Amino acid sequence: MENKKRETFSSGLAVFFATLGSAVGLGNIWRFPYITGMNGGGGFLFIYILCILFVGIPIMISEFYIGRKTRANAVGAFRKLNKENFKFIGLMGVLSSFLIMFFYSGVAGWVYSYVFKSLIGKFNGVTPEQANEIFTSTISNYGMAYLWQVIVMVVVSTILIMGVKNGIEKVTKTLMPLLFILIIIMDIRALTLTDSFEGVKFLFKVDFSKVTQASILIALGLAFFKLSIGMGTMITYGSYFTEDNDMPQTAFKVAFSDLLVSLLAGLAIFPAVFSFKMEPAAGPGLLFMTIPLVFSKMPLGRVLLTLFFLLTSFAATTAMISLVEVPVAYLSEEMKIDRKKAVLLTAVIILVFGFLATASIAGGNAIAEIKAFGKNFFDLFDFVSSNILLPLGGLFITIFIGYFIDRDDIVNELSNGGKISNQAILTAFLILIRYISPLLVVIIFLNSLGVFK
Ligand code: PHE
User: What ipTM was reported for this prediction?
Assistant: First the structure.
């Protein structure tokens, strides 16, 4: 397998869209708004943006470097660099990918079901109470929710098995801009609701008094989750990059566009939250309870709402493809399992543990009663992956790149053999990755443990 020439993306634009396809997903539309809402708004956003700049982007560039240099999966890449001792970083990534998929596939199921619910007009003229009820019954009826989760995994596996990824990439190229336009329409509608400005203030007014010690680690975790870093996804994608791609620039563009999508989603959701007198800290249901209200009193509302959930489900699906690609590439390239079997095996594991997540968030059953550290399965999978494993994986990557890889080699690869002159950026990168990024991650970890209290 390894001697066969690996495919690469066809152009710089294809690299950008494929990478953005991994980054943009439920993270922007579902997770960013509800987590920002639970952590007090603007102050949290400010810290989140610092995490992207000083930790996220440098790690993304590092992963691109590892991937393109070796043209291998997240575990094999370390072997090819003759750094067998660091293979554990890739293996941790495989584990993170599973943990994220256990709950992500469930939430994607909610989104798929909302496409259907919008289409049949379930949200025509809904009140805030009804929107709330519809969401609660969507998750508490966990048999049905699980069925949607199975459908999600069938779709993802089919795409991976049929190898129509290239087709998907072409589709993403048109659908991503469409999702962008639709969110802007939502923004305009939401910003013209009464009291909408309260929502804008909530999102952008930097107020550190609402930021707790725990929020800082959550902001860091969100940056990792959002940018699909700390677990080898960007190593795997980097391995398909073209030789002439300006990787630092790609990282900037992806991080910036991803942030923009999140902010625009927030600008649709928070004005609605305040206008309809809802609770910004409502939790994982926030998106599902507010968006139907934004569209409900709008011309063509039902069509636009259906289209919105449809495009969101596409964004979720491309993100999941990149998530599942980590274990699949590992199983097929390192363990020599036939690719099709690797996909099926991965999907089955996800569906077995995914059931625990779905049943636990439904409440009112024995599975929901099982708790570790006060968290049910859904929260535990989420917390351990985003707030522990991804930052830890990221920390190891910064140490690996900063201290175990030759500087000249990094400079050479990131400047494409001297073909692009980005000396200032490379110097900044080298300083960040060696000193700043790892230090910040360590400080944030220690802080969340209460060491600086
Ligand atoms: N970045 C994706 C999102 O925000 C989720 C993801 C995480 C994808 C990690 C790949 C790897 O939805």
Answer: 0.98
Domain chopping of the chain, boundaries = 12-176+202-258+312-448
Q: How far is the CA of 226 from the centre of ligand 1 (A)?
A: 5
* pLDDT score, position 2: 43
Q: Which atom of ligand 1 is nearest to the CA of 225?
A: 7
Other CB atoms within a 10 A radius of the CB of residue 64 amount to: 27
**Rounded percentage of the chain residues whose pLDDT exceeds 90:** 87
Write down the pLDDT at residue 392: 97
Q: How far is the CA of 121 from the centre of ligand 1 (A)?
A: 30
Q: What is the pLDDT of residues 138-177, one digit of tens each?
A: 999 999 999 999 999 999 999 888 865 666 677 777 888 9
Q: What is the Å distance from ligand 1's center to 65 Cα?
A: 19
